[in-house]
Amino acid sequence: MSNSYFKIKNLRFIIIAIWLIIILFPLFWIALTSVKPTEATLSQTPVFLFTPTLQNYQFGAEVIDPYTNEPIFAGIASQFPRYLGNSIIITLFSTTIALSVGLLLAYSLSKFKIMGGTALLALMLTIHTVTPIVFTPALFIMFQNLGLQDTHLGLSLIYATFALPLTVWILRNFFNNFSKTIEEAAKVDGASTLDVLFRITLPQLRVGLAVAAIFAFTIAWNDFIFTLTLTQTNASTFVFLADFFDDLLRVGVLTPGPLTSMSIVHMLPSFIFAFLIQRYLLLGFSAGTINKEVD
Amino acid sequence: MDFGVKQLAVTFDIKDKYLKWLFVLPALILLTVFAIIPYLWTFGMSFYDYSVSIFGRTPDFIGLQNYEILMTHPDIWLRFQNTAKFSVTAVTIEFLFGLMLAMLLFEHFRGRRLILTLCVLPMMIAPEITAMVFKMVMFRPDIGFVNYLMKLLAIPYEGYGKDAFFSVVSVDVWTWTPFIMLMIIGGLSSVPKSVLESSDVDGAGWWARFRYVIFPYARPFMLLAVIFRLADSFRTWEVIREFLEVPPPVGPDPLGIDMLPSYLYALAFRAFKSSEMMATAIIMVVMSLVLVYTYLRYLKRIEKHE
To answer: Same domain, yes or no, for B138 and B201?
Structure first.
């Protein structure tokens, strides 16, 4: 091991450290801003030392305008639990639909020869890739005619549809890799196709189901365009409320505090999930096309 | 439970032939109702003078007029250029950083898994949330952290307004560089360990090792990553919308960052020129289709190769 080897090795860790700082500093800064007292968030020079406060996390409480000390938009702030609840309900519902429907399709595509199966997979990748804005006027009209406008059901079905490509591609990969011999042995023993699916294959594929579910979750949880165009208040999600706060900031009414605390609340579940399925993140982000574990 | 499943299979003693179609059916219904029909409707309506704001009036058939507007209107052409400018700039930077990081991170060492997962976190955040908080705490002209840094370095920088292009590109780079890194690392996992080790023993230089050992394995995945990211960057909307500050303008674009998705949104929901929007949307779909098709063909070739 020569001297230059150590130099290269050190350089390598310095570059990695710099990148980690680039990635993590904004997150740290957002978290820090969310526990700052109001004056500190508005300081022109960054403030690192302050007495932390949880005022921005008292979501149900009234929002106090720092300039006038009057409560403002109390109505909106008290809506916080409802918007968060909407997000949770719609996400759970759409993930369940996408997972069960996607599971059946992925199983069918991977175990049987289906006419037009490849075309169907290509179509789904297209749906995943094209910006959803293309669909919004059509869906807007359709929702009005079907009475789905601003309903939890309508939004859930949309999210399920747009999460379907991801779940199918991911699950198909897990099914394809699953050993055929076990399934065939069970069939020889007289088990039916459904028996094999529910009692042998699925229990072995818990990881695949979890990965698919988490990516279906992100589709619904992170969406903005559909809640903006297809809901008004009743079924609007958490991102919609955050955007409303942002609109207030734009006209200079609020301080950044509430927005950062809401962002932290919104990010946390996704981060926890990312740690749970870290090996399989590439599979999800490549829409199920690259089947490589990164470990 | 045992009984339940068996019962199900017996009650519907369905042959696999029918079962496979039964399994496909629910997905087919969802996709048809909420994706294929809207697609076809969008395509059809691009030949009418339709608007979401008209109630009761039957739209007139106007043939290819919307596409003619599309071809001749400078505003739309400008958005196409901006989209290309943004995508090429962002993906190039992401590729260079992503490649460098992949080279540094593909070999195992303690704590590597943690670093990889930390790198991926930005991709898990809702794009709208990223856009809002970055705009508010990083790039805001008076209190933004980046603006403060720039002031320290004496670089003239505003954050919003005329420097908005830099801001939106850096948000995109921050979010998506780890994707290209992951793709290349994924590709490199197929380099046989023995090859790597023997090149180490042979004392191959850093460059030779990259050029002749790593690059041949990583190349297909680099290409896949770039195609995928290009297609994906066409849909960048949230961050653009945020940095346009006011509701997206439909006329000329003073900031030089308005892209196709934000323009489509403004056309449909602010200017209520829905059918013009749909014609543009169809062109976008075709662009994405070309990329998806290229991607799939290339993917197939790699899979055959392995």
So the answer is: yes
Residue B60 within any structural domain of the chain: no
State the best of B1, B7, B23, B206 to mutate against chain A, taking most chain A CBs within 10 Å: B23
Domain presence at residue B61: no
State whether residue B149 sits within 8 Å of chain A by CB: no
pLDDT of B206: 72
pLDDT band at B203 (very low <50, low <70, confident <90, very high): low
The interface predicted TM-score (ipTM) is: 0.88
Tell me the count of A-B CB pairs closer than 8 A: 276
Round to whole Å and give the CA distance between A9 and B104.
Answer: 9
Beta carbons of B27 and A164 less than 8 Å apart: yes
Pairing of strands A71-72, A63-64: antiparallel
Residues B114 and B153 in one domain: yes
Domains and CATH numbers, chain A: 1-52 (no CATH), 80-285 (1.10.3720.10)
Q: Is residue B92 domain-shared with residue B166, that is, in the same domain?
A: yes
Cα–Cα distance between B141 and A240 in angstroms, integer? 25
Whether A203 and A259 have beta carbons less than 8 Å apart is answered as no
Enumerate the residues of chain A whose CB falls inside 8 A of the CB of residue B285.
126, 130, 134
The answer to whether residue B151 is domain-embedded is yes
- Give the distance from residue B174's alpha carbon to the nearest chain A alpha carbon, in angstroms: 7
Q: Which residues contact B211 (CB under 8 A, 6 or more apart)?
A: none
Decide if pLDDT at A242 tops 90.
Answer: no
- Stronger pLDDT, A90 or B305, i.e. the higher one: A90
- Scanning B187-246 for CB atoms below 8 A from A yields 187, 189-190, 206, 221, 224, 228, 231-232, 234-235, 237-238, 242, 245
Supply the pLDDT for residue A284: 87
Q: Structurally, how many domains does chain B consist of?
A: 2
Domain housing B294: 72-305
Question: A20-44: per-residue pLDDT in tens?
Answer: 999 999 999 999 998 988 888 888 8
